[in-house]
Amino acid sequence: MTKPCPCGSGKEHIECCGPLIAGQSPAPTAEALMRSRYSAYVLKEFDYLRETLSEEALKDHDEASVREWAESASWQGLEIHETWAGGVDDDQGVVEFSARYAIDGEERTHRERSQFRRVDGQWRYLDGTMVSGPPIRKEPKIGRNEPCPCGSGRKYKKCCGR
């Protein structure tokens, strides 16, 4: 029986994060490692979570806290907001994400901007910073009185800005 991957990719687990967690293949990108680490939290694959840490991150790793958080949470979904670098040809990358979960019926969101580094051909989690607020916008904000980018010829506030 096949199951959807917990990471929310829309793929089956055996075609997505499953082979990464099982050690059958390495994560090709920083985002793939991020998704597989989320799936490992959901599936309580603590060895994988430890194995995918960089040396620096491993020094501060608290297995008991990781286990307590993963086991007490009811994981509800992952959303990737943005990635910077972290592709198949990169050695470093950043992934900003939100992980939704509930503890004792209280819904919560863990939002983080994670740093990853490729070490000996394997992506590793390096560090993360908690983030609040909306994702960082890459494109400039459109002013209300500027022409609408849809090409209608009207002002943005009278067209798509409604």
From TrEMBL:
Residues 29-128 form the YchJ-like middle NTF2-like domain. Signal peptide: none annotated. InterPro entries: NTF2-like_dom_sf, SEC_C_motif, YchJ-like, YchJ-like_M. Pfam families: SEC-C, YchJ_M-like. Belongs to the UPF0225 family. HAMAP family: UPF0225 (MF_00612). This is UPF0225 protein GKC30_13605. It comes from Pseudodesulfovibrio alkaliphilus.
